[in-house]
Design a protein that fits this description.
Largest sheet: 6 strands, mixed
Mean pLDDT: 91
Distance between the termini: 38 Å
Strand order of the largest sheet: 4-3-2-1-6-5
Order of helices and strands: EEEEHEHE
Shape: globular
Number of strands: 6
Radius of gyration: 14 Å
Helix content: 10-25%
Strand content: over 45%
Number of helices: 2
């Protein structure tokens, strides 16, 4: 995947799973994508350590739709990560 077009774009990490009662649940964290050579990072809006996106996961990054963009903090792209059920 060519990472260069992602540099400087808003990128959301969408974590989807089930809550303690078994209902669908999701959380998103949004930041700015930064490309360094062949490496992709997310610099978080709230600060803190950047997240490095593994090369095998970068191919799963998708462009947001207009409706989804509004729910994901105006992110232009997102990466969905599936999580297991929350501990109950």
């Amino acid at each position: 995947m060519n990472l260069a077009p992602l540099s400087g774009k808003r990128l959301a990490i969408l974590v989807a799973g089930k809550d303690a009662s078994g209902e669908d649940d999701w959380r998103a964290a949004v930041g700015t994508a930064r490309v360094e050579g062949a490496r992709l990072f997310v610099d978080w809006d709230e600060g803190g350590e950047p997240l490095e996106i593994e090369p095998e996961s970068a191919g799963s990054i998708r462009r947001t739709t207009k409706d989804l963009r509004a729910m994901l903090g105006n992110a232009e792209y997102f990466l969905r990560v599936d999580a297991g059920a929350a501990p109950g």
